Amino acid sequence: MKIKNRINLLLTLLFLLGINNSFSQSNKFKVTLDAGHGAHDFGATYHGHVEKNIALAVMLKVGKILEKNPNIDVNYTRKTDVFIDLVERANIANRADANIFVSIHCNANKNTAADGTETYVMGLTKNASNLEAAKKENSVITLEKDYKQKYEGYDPNAPESLLGMTLMQEEYLENSIALAGKIQENFANDMGLKNRGVKQAPFMVLHKAYMPRVLIEMGFISNKDEGERLDSEQGQNDTAQAIAEAIVSYKKEFFGEVTNEPVVEKPIRRIYEKPVEEIKKPDTVKKTEVIEQVVNSIDEKGIVFKVQLSASTKKLNLSPSNFKGLKNISSSSTNGLYKYMYGATSSYEEAKKLLQEAKTKGYSTAFLIAFKDGNSINVQDAIK
Ligand SMILES: [Zn+2]
């Protein structure tokens, strides 16, 4: 090959790489991280451990891990010890058009024996201890200027009043549950922490964010052992690693596969041993329900791909007018949660086209699901 040709080839390659790069930039997975509290809002404080500081430290560590991934864009509601309104935290995520919003907190209970981690998704609950958690986190709005005007009609002492304010954003419920489940799983499996489950409660900060979103209670600052873990360098590193890995795993599952995903070097992680003696806990911290993954049963043989559009507690008529004009909508329901799906095909190629079509119609969080003989299976397995 002549030198000139080689140069041309090289230029062409560089040009193509450039296009590829700008494409992947716009196609990045966007994460908004939120460290609870800040400045004069300390959050919970016990035994010298301060929630606002722990939340910030862990959140910055999560961000540092995620920023190493070239396919992820991270933005933050705060990176220093400042006070930010709850609605503004959500709006930072809304303006960034984030794919997920992750709010990081520590739990506390007068019963200092209470321990373990829990991750919340937005929603209705009658469970007293869930409502109590929401009340605690929502009460910080009383520190905001003009909160009565800003959150008109909302009583921070009655978190359930939040639900009457506007129509609930339930489009993202199932994705939120999936993300929360991954976080809880990593806490339990990688760190040996007690899993208090994925829970639902009306949190103001989640309510105002329009994307899959979770609020993590990383452990009880009021518990002596957990407080020490949360306030230690090693404990924060491990907690951050568990959260970051859950986010990457969620991205892989719901944001399409990227072949050049960097391999994350895993630091050595501690397993946090539980005390041998099981401590008796009062009713307020009794084991609460884990929202179970939805199980489908669909009357079809062989492998079938469908596009999941949304999940909701509302039962909708399957007519195209309810689904932005899309036809061939099916639904399934489990435990009061309705899943709405578009199309049905045995071809993965065809399914990808259907997914694209759904996204074009405005279902930006739609994703593919697969069934074998009517049972839900992993999409990767279905492709095989
Ligand atoms: Zn908090």
Features:
single chain, 384 residues, 6-stranded mixed β-sheet, Aminopeptidase, Alpha-Beta Plaits
Topology:
Elements: H1 3-26, E1 29-35, E2 45-46, E3 49-50, H2 51-67, E4 72-76, H3 86-96, E5 100-107, E6 117-122, H4 128-138, H5 147-150, H6 162-165, H7 173-191, E7 195-201, H8 204-207, E8 213-220, H9 224-230, H10 233-254, E9 303-312, E10 329-334, E11 337-345, H11 348-360, E12 367-372, E13 375-377, H12 379-383
Parallel strand pairs: 1-4, 1-5, 5-8, 6-7
Antiparallel strand pairs: 2-3, 6-8, 9-11, 9-12, 10-11, 12-13
Helix pairs in contact: 2-10, 7-10
This protein binds zinc ion.
Task: Give a nutshell description of this structure.
This protein has 384 residues and is α/β, with parallel strands linked by helices.
Bound molecules: zinc ion
Q: Give the helix tally.
A: 12
Give the helix level as a range of percent: 25-40%
Quick one: CATH class of the largest domain?
Alpha Beta
Average residue pLDDT: 81
Please identify the structural class as seen in this structure.
Answer: alpha/beta
**Overall domain count:** 2
Question: How would you describe what is shown here?
Answer:
The protein is an alpha/beta fold and 384 residues long. 37% of the residues lie in helices and 21% in strands. The protein contains 12 helices and 13 strands. The protein has helices at 3-26, 51-67, 86-96, 128-138, 147-150, 162-165, 173-191, 204-207, 224-230, 233-254, 348-360, 379-383, and strands at residues 29-35, 45-46, 49-50, 72-76, 100-107, 117-122, 195-201, 213-220, 303-312, 329-334, 337-345, 367-372, 375-377. The strands form 3 sheets. Strands 4-1-5-8-6-7 form a 6-stranded mixed sheet, sandwiched between helices. Strands 10-11-9-12-13 form a 5-stranded antiparallel sheet. A hairpin with a 2-residue loop joins β2 and β3. The chain is globular. Residues 18-25 and 275-299 have low confidence and may be disordered. Residues 36-37, 43, 51, 105, 137 line the site of zinc ion.
